[in-house]
Specification:
Elements: E1 8-9, E2 18-31, H1 35-43, E3 57-70, E4 74-78, H2 85-93, E5 100-105, E6 109-112, H3 125-135, H4 140-154, H5 169-181, E7 187-191, H6 199-214, E8 218-222, H7 226-232, E9 235-240, E10 243-248, H8 250-260, H9 265-276, E11 300-301, E12 312-313, E13 319-328, E14 341-343, E15 348-356, E16 360-371, E17 376-382, E18 396-398, E19 403-410, E20 417-429, E21 432-448
Parallel strand pairs: 1-5, 4-8, 4-9, 6-7, 7-8, 14-21
Antiparallel strand pairs: 2-3, 2-5, 9-10, 11-14, 12-21, 13-15, 15-19, 16-17, 16-18, 16-20, 20-21
């Protein structure tokens, strides 16, 4: 039977290098089938012999999680919804008590666990700044010193004097992050809150996180964005069903997560059971960009576990998309050459196979590549003039029973990360477009990490290295 532990210390003696240490951290909840069982358990929890008689089921939201986080480092926390991420952060912040294990945290902890948490909706934004800071242990004088910086960072203008209940989610996030980031925390915990902000504010927040890290602040970052984990974290841990599956480099953890994110619990257990059988978790083979033989880096390979979770296909109207697969630009088109992991910078082809169930006229084929948040990054249509003209040469015709393949060619301009491929079979009649068949998020594509690089924008369109041309040569003294 699970009972709560009291082993949470805020300021225990620890190595000066360590900001947080979790040891065997576990959290168990009691699940009752009926409300009356909760009362019966409290009153008659034991039989006449003194033995415990359980009327509930145990649910372990977190089970035996241990790790350390050093000062000046960022740890990414990755996992599906319900994997225990938020529970872990609440235990680290002290808002929950562990059932087993202990948490040792050194210094002041700032946390963005839920949007608007710690704010009184009836108070003004300014009042909440003082209230929130006081709860975090800051004196009125300390808040006064940081107030201008907080208000400037939040940038919500005169709304700072209005009740928080009138704020939009974005305004509440701005104020909450501004307070937490300017209390000089030793540890800053961010639980997916930044997803609410616009891109400019997210960039501003991540820049501030980098400055905090330089001052020695340890950061825990929870997000579903694998590119953000890779870009901003020094290490990452993977949670599933409340258990810690791995702590490794961000690239390895996100690669494993993307492979397994749509798999069943049995598939997860089987995968890590195979890894643990080697007795060497740190040297497990998680392909990134290296071959099994350790020779030259692999350009690409096929990972059959990498697939979209919710592909959406519409009812065909006389024709259909039969299949789709990816090959390298120089590879053969047949399916034996298909890949879905491609090295950064490599060109590739997306091959769609179609079937005409009836005679099809004025037909065009389309393909697009989208990010994990649904943003379309690139695409093609064949013929290229389809939809732009009514000329007969701009479209193609297929007889019933025809089967064909269309190849779409793409340069290697996608940043490392996960992408989804969609396709469409269209018909143009009198200039009007009509879908014969659509397949949304039909296939998944992962672009692999290569050499460390500074990412700007959504795609890597830059070519070569910048060149400096001196217009005026300075005189040598």
């Amino acid at each position: 039977m699970c009972s709560e532990s009291n082993s949470i210390d805020s300021y225990p003696p620890m190595n000066d290098r360590i900001a947080i240490r979790a040891d065997g951290l576990s959290k168990c909840y009691h699940i009752y089938d009926h409300p009356r069982d909760r009362l019966i358990q409290a009153i008659w929890g034991r039989d006449r012999f003194g033995r415990s008689k359980l009327r509930y089921r145990e649910f372990w939201a977190l089970n035996n999680v241990s790790f350390e986080l050093a000062r000046g480092q960022t740890l990414g926390v990755v996992g599906r919804n319900g994997s225990g991420k938020s529970t872990l952060l609440q235990l680290l912040c002290g808002t929950l008590r562990p059932t087993k294990g202990s948490v040792n945290a050194s210094g002041r902890i700032g946390a963005l666990l839920e949007l608007g948490s710690g704010f009184n909706p009836e108070f003004s934004g300014l009042d909440n700044v003082y209230l929130n800071a006081a709860l975090l242990g800051l004196s009125h004088a300390e808040v006064e010193k940081q107030l201008d910086a907080i208000l400037s960072f939040a940038d919500i203008g005169e709304f700072i004097h209005q009740p928080v209940k009138t704020y939009s989610s974005g305004m509440a996030l701005r104020l909450a992050f501004a307070v937490q980031a300017h209390i000089n925390p030793d540890v800053l915990v961010v639980d997916e809150a930044l997803a609410v902000g616009d891109e400019l504010f997210q960039k501003k927040c991540y820049s501030h996180l980098e400055r905090l890290k330089e001052k020695g602040t340890a950061v825990l970052l929870v997000t579903h964005s694998c590119p953000q984990i890779i870009q901003h974290c020094d290490q990452a841990l993977l949670l599933h069903s409340g258990r810690l599956r791995m702590i490794e480099s961000p690239a390895k953890v996100t690669t494993t997560y993307q492979r397994l994110m749509n798999e069943s619990d049995k598939a997860w257990d089987r995968y890590f059971s195979d890894i643990n059988s080697t007795k060497d978790l740190n040297n497990q083979h998680i392909p990134e960009c290296s071959s099994d033989q350790g020779a030259k880096p692999q350009k690409a390979w096929m990972d059959h576990m990498l697939k979209p979770k919710s592909p959406e296909t519409y009812t065909p109207k006389g024709g259909s998309i039969v299949d789709a697969w990816i090959t390298l630009e120089e590879a053969l088109t047949n399916k034996t050459s298909q890949v879905n992991n491609i090295a950064f910078g490599k060109s590739f082809k997306i091959n769609f196979e179609y079937l005409a169930e009836i005679d099809l006229e004025n037909v065009a084929m389309a393909c697009n590549i989208a990010s994990v948040n649904g943003q379309r990054l690139s695409g093609q249509c064949h013929p290229k003039q389809a939809g732009l003209t009514n000329r007969s040469e701009a479209v193609t015709t297929f007889q019933a029973g025809s089967r064909w393949i269309t190849q779409f060619h793409f340069n290697g301009g996608l940043w490392p990360g996960l992408y989804f491929i969609s396709g469409g079979l269209l018909s143009y009649r009198s200039g009007e477009r009509e879908f014969i068949h659509r397949a949304i998020d039909f296939r998944a594509l992962r672009i692999l990490e290569g050499e460390p690089m500074h990412r700007i924008g959504n795609c890597a369109l830059a070519k070569g290295n910048p060149k400096i041309i001196n217009l005026i040569e300075a005189e040598t003294p």
